[in-house]
Amino acid sequence: MRALIAAATGLALAFALVLTLTALGTPDGETSPNPLLTTVPAHP
Prior knowledge:
- The protein has one helix and no strands.
- With 44 residues, the chain is mainly α.
């Protein structure tokens, strides 16, 4: 029974966290115009 209560509590906390983040919205910011380096430089 304790496991069921713990699972329900965790689910409720996760749901509350999602609702809080949704209410806050996306943060203001910009993406970098420079692409990330994803290739490995050639070895000498």
